[in-house]
Amino acid sequence: MINEITYLCIFIFGLSPSILSQELILIIHKDSRFKSIATKDIKYIFLGKLKKIKDLNIIPITLKIGKVHDIFFDKFIKKNARQFSRFLKKLLFTGRGKPPKSYKSK
Amino acid sequence: MSIIKHISLLMTLLLFSSLASGQEFYGIDIHGFASQGYLRTTDNNYLGKSSKGSFEFNEVGINFQKDLTDNLRVGLQLFARDLGSQGNNEVKIDWALLDYKWKPFLNFRAGKIKMPYGFYNQGRDVDMLRTSIILPQSIYNEPIRDVIASLEGFSFYGNFDFNNGGSLEYELIAGTISIDSDFPFIKDPYLEIVNGAASGAAAGLANVPGFSGVETLTGGLRFDMKYMYVFSLIYNTPIEGFRLGGTILELEGDWEGDFSLITNFANPADPTGTLLISSVSKVSFTTEVLIRSGIVSLEYVWKNLTLSAEGVVMQFYLDNEKSDGRNGGLYIGGSYEFNDKFTLGLYYSVNYDNLKDKDGSDLPAIGKKDFQAWQNDFVISGRYDVNEYLVLKAEIHIINGAADLNSVDNQRDPIKEDWLLFALKATVSF
C-alpha cells in the first residue's frame, strides 16, 4: 500500500535532466497496479482536485526547487515555478486545500 | 495605529521570516503571513487618512490545518487587518472549516468559508498572491470587503472534466455573516440619512421665529443578514491558460437604526441667548435590503504574461422597491514577469455609483459633485520577490473621479476630481 500511495513522488524524483532534454519519462513503482496514467490526472492531483485513482489514495510529493521541479510543473501542470508557488499559497491561505509536501532533495 | 503596534508588527514580520519554511506540530500544518503597507494621496482621503500618509494598512494571518482522514480536512485561519477605520487589527476568524472530498465532481465544506466573487476575492487578504497592492476597486470594492470576504454556512463544489473540451468548476455556497455596525457599507448611508434629516429639519424650520439650529445624536445601528448565497462557475477552456468565469450573489438583511434630532429655539426669557429651548425627537427606521450582483470574469495566462478583465453589476432593493439605477464597473489589466524577481502590472478600472447617471448630472441636486458619480483608476504596479517568502511592492494610481470616497473621511476639505494615490507594501509568508 505504501508503495502505491507514494508512487507519485517517484514521478518527480525519477526524472533526470538529461532525459528531459530529449523526452519526459515518468516512472511508476514496479509494484504499482497502474500501467498508465492520464496527463490531466497528474495535473489534477497536483492542483488538489484529484485525491484518488481507482479507489487508491494519492499523496503527491514534490521537490522544493530545482530544474527537475521546474520542468515537471511546466510540462504537466502548465505553470512556471512562481505561478505554481502562488497557486499553492492561494490554496493554503484561503482554506481550499493543503499543498503537497515538498522536500529539498531526492 | 500607535508606534508600538507598528513595532509589534515588524517583530511579527521578522518572526515569520525566521519560520519561513512553515511548521508542523503533531501533524498540524502551521503557516502564516504578515504585511505592512503605506498609503499617500495628493488630495482626498482614501481608505483612511491618506492625504497626510497612512500606515494604517496591514494584514496578519496564521492558519492551522490537519488531515483527519484521507478525505476529511479541518482548518482555521486567524486574521487581523487595519485599513483606515476598518479592521483596527482586531483578530477574527477568517475561515474555519471542515472539507470533505467525495468525488471530483461533488465535495463539501462547512463552517466559515472564503467566498468566491470574481476570480480574486478569495485571495484578497493575501497580498503575495497578486502583482498589484490594491485590487481593482470596480470589482473588489473596499467598502463591501467584509461583506463578501467569508460566509458561515455550507458549500458544495466540484469539477467536471470534458476531456479535450476543457473543464468546468463550480461552487455553491450559502449562509450568513455578521457585519460590524461601524462597517462603511452600512454606516455611511446611515450617516447620510442622519445628516439629511438634520438638513431637512433645518430647512423646514428656518423661517420659524426663534429657531436657532438642529443637532443630531446618533444612536444604534445594525445590519442583520438573513441569508446570502453565491454561485460561481469557472470554465477552463481547451486553450491552455484561458478561463472564463461567472458569479452571482444574492443577500438579504434588515438594516436597523435610530437617531435623535434636537431642534433648538431661543429662550425669550434669556436675552443673552445662552439658554435654549430644545425639542428632542427620536427617529427609528428598519429597511429590508436585498442585493443582487453578477460578475463576468476572463483570464488568460501565457508563459510570463497574465491578462484579466472582469465586470460587475449590482442592484439594490430597499423594502422590496428596486433602487433607481444599478451600481457597476469593470477593469482590464495585465502583468508580466520579467524574471524570477520582478513583475510589472498595469490595470485600468472604472466604476459608477449609478449606471443610469454615469456623468453625475443628477448629483448636484442632492449637494454632491458630478464627479462623485464615477471613479477612473489607472494603475502601475511593480512587484519584487526578494525570495520565496518576502515580497516588496510599489504602486501608483492616477485617479479621476470620487465615487469611492468615504464622506466621513472627507468632511474637512473639498474633494478633488483628479488625484494620485501612492502605495507601498512589504509581505512575508511562511
Shape of chain B: globular
Class of secondary structure makeup of chain A: mainly alpha
Helix content of chain A: 40-55%
Number of helices of chain B: 2
Please give the domain count of chain B. 1
Terminal Cα span of chain A: 21 Å
Instruction: Enumerate the spans of chain A where pLDDT stays under 50 for 5 or more consecutive residues.
Output: 1-14
Helix/strand order of chain B: HEEEEEEEEHEEEEEEEEEE
Strand order of the largest sheet of chain A: 1-2
CATH domain class name of chain B = Mainly Beta
CATH topology of chain B: Porin
Count structural domains of chain A.
Answer: 1
Number of strands of chain B: 18
User: Rough shape of chain A?
Assistant: globular
Radius of gyration from the alpha-carbon trace of chain B, in angstroms? 24 Å
Question: What oligomeric assembly is this protein in?
Answer: heterodimer
The DSSP helix count of chain A reads: 6
CATH homologous superfamily heading of chain B: Porin
Order of helices and strands of chain A: HHHHEEEHHE
Key terms for this structure?
heterodimer; A: 106 residues; mainly alpha; two-stranded antiparallel ribbon; two-stranded parallel ribbon; 6 helices; 45% helix; 9% strand; globular; disordered N terminus; B: 430 residues; mainly beta; Porin; 16-stranded antiparallel beta barrel; 2 helices; 55% strand
What this model shows, in words?
The complex is a heterodimer of chains A (106) and B (430). Chain A is mainly alpha-helical. Chain A has one domain. Chain A is built from six helices and four strands, in the order H-H-H-H-E-E-E-H-H-E. Chain A has helices at 2-5, 7-13, 17-20, 39-46, 67-77, 81-94, and strands at residues 52-53, 56-57, 61-63, 101-103. Chain A has a two-stranded antiparallel sheet with strand order 1-2. In chain A, strands 3-4 form a two-stranded parallel ribbon. Residues 1-14 of chain A have low confidence and may be disordered. Chain B is 9% helix and 55% strand. Chain B is mainly beta and 430 residues long. Chain B has one domain: Porin, CATH 2.40.160.10. A 16-stranded antiparallel β-barrel of chain B has the order 2-3-4-5-6-7-8-9-10-11-12-14-15-16-17-18. Chain B contains two helices and 18 strands. The longest helix of chain B has 22 residues, at 184-205. Chain B is globular and about 85 Å long. The interface between A and B is medium-sized, with 24 and 38 residues.
